[in-house]
């Protein structure tokens, strides 16, 4: 599997949809300008970010994750509107990971800046 590299995206906001996400992690690399990421899944899904245990594209889903019920979403604030970490000295997420809890799902990912 290869990560979905969205780092060169310049449209704000940007909506990306990925079909056929299975039960292993699918990595999405957001652009550096992203302040907030919203993920909506068509089925029960897991979401992970780089943190207590770093997920890997195509890797097994570990214990550090957030569950999303079918047709629901989750929002992550990655940085403040000035493009800086919300609290100075903190590191922000450089990748977002999504996996189906069973079968396959479609995930829609919305990337937003703080200056819209």
Tags for this entry?
0% helix; globular; single chain; 4-stranded antiparallel β-sheet; 116 residues; mainly beta; 5-stranded mixed β-sheet
How many beta-strand runs?
Answer: 9
Mean pLDDT: 87
Q: What is the terminal separation in angstroms?
A: 33 Å
Helix content range: under 10%
Low-confidence stretches: none
Radius of gyration, rounded? 13 Å
Beta-strand content estimate: 35-45%
Shape: globular
Provide the succession of SSEs. Answer: EEEEEEEEE
| Spatial order of strands in the largest sheet | 1-3-8-5-6
Number of helices: 0
Structural class: mainly beta
Largest sheet: 5 strands, mixed
Notes on the structure:
The chain is mostly beta strands and 116 residues long. It has strands at 4-5, 14-21, 26-29, 36-41, 45-49, 66-68, 72-77, 96-100, 105-112.
The gist of it:
With 116 residues, the protein is mainly β. It is 0% helix and 41% strand.
What's the topology here?
Layout: E1 4-5, E2 14-21, E3 26-29, E4 36-41, E5 45-49, E6 66-68, E7 72-77, E8 96-100, E9 105-112
């Amino acid at each position: 599997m290869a990560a979905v590299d969205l780092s060169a995206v310049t449209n704000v906001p940007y909506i990306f949809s990925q079909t056929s996400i299975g039960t292993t992690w699918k990595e999405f690399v957001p652009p550096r300008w992203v302040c907030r990421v919203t993920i909506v899944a068509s089925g029960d899904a897991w979401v992970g970010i780089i943190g207590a245990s770093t997920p890997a594209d195509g890797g097994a889903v570990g214990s550090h994750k957030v569950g999303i019920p079918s047709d629901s979403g989750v929002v992550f604030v990655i940085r403040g509107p000035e493009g800086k970490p919300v609290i100075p000295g903190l590191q922000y997420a450089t990748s977002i990971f999504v996996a189906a809890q069973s079968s396959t799902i479609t995930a829609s990912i919305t990337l937003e800046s703080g200056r819209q």
